[in-house]
Amino acid sequence: MKVQVLFFASLREALGTAGETLEVGEGCDVAAARALLAARRGEWQRLASPRIRAAVNQALVAEAHGLAEGDELAFFPPVTGG
């Protein structure tokens, strides 16, 4: 199945992309999708950090949240304010 993956803020800059369509297996959850992307090595390994948050269809979710065909999975670093 396919999910749309988006990257925000410093992740977008480090990875050199705002997003992509990712093919994942049935029953895939956020943790598995994150591991699939982080396995690309280099800057992609930033996604393995527990500080990087994930949202599915614009709602914050846990790592065990299951993905469905057409979901939007977004990753973003912690933000600071001031």
UniProtKB/TrEMBL annotation:
Belongs to the MoaD family. PANTHER family: MOLYBDOPTERIN SYNTHASE SULFUR CARRIER SUBUNIT (PTHR33359). InterPro entries: Beta-grasp_dom_sf, MOCS2A, Mopterin_synth/thiamin_S_b, ThiS/MoaD-like. This is Molybdopterin synthase sulfur carrier subunit. Signal peptide: none annotated. Keywords: Nucleotide-binding. It holds the Pfam family ThiS. SUPFAM superfamilies: MoaD/ThiS.
